[in-house]
Amino acid sequence: MSQIKKSFFLFSILLISISAISQDTNKKSAAGGPASAKELLGYWKMISIPNLAVNKVNPWPQPYQWFQFTKDGKVSSMMSSVNKEYSKQELHVLFEAFQKNKIPNYKVSGSFVIIDNPSVKNYLEIWGTNIFAKDIEGIAKKGDLMMTLDDGTQTGKVVYYRLLRRIK
To answer: Which residues contact 134 (CB under 8 A, 6 or more apart)?
Structure first.
């Protein structure tokens, strides 16, 4: 089997496993498990997943995205068509410029991260999460965060995968 086919096969199996784990349990395994509130804290950069075709929708089409999860339950994000390697300090300054009352809230509930936005009526995102406990060749590194968004029907049908790497 070629390396590309092998990577695609492993990635597909991984996504199915993550979907099942993030929806059915909040226990950790040798491969990883749901993110705790403490594990989410800090700054993250989106990493391209090996097979973008698994995303049935792309609600956030910019290829470069950065996130901040804070202790007070706020999640800030920004997107760009241009790649940049921001430091934590640079992101802190950028995210501090956001209007506090416009920043979405998040809370961890079991294996899910629930995001609401007080400035947008009826806004709600429910994400399954998985923190990788070890490197997965060609896909993710130990400590990476996979977030899965379902189709809004609460049936567990994942339509969007987001892979994040912590900015140290």
So the answer is: 30, 31, 32, 142
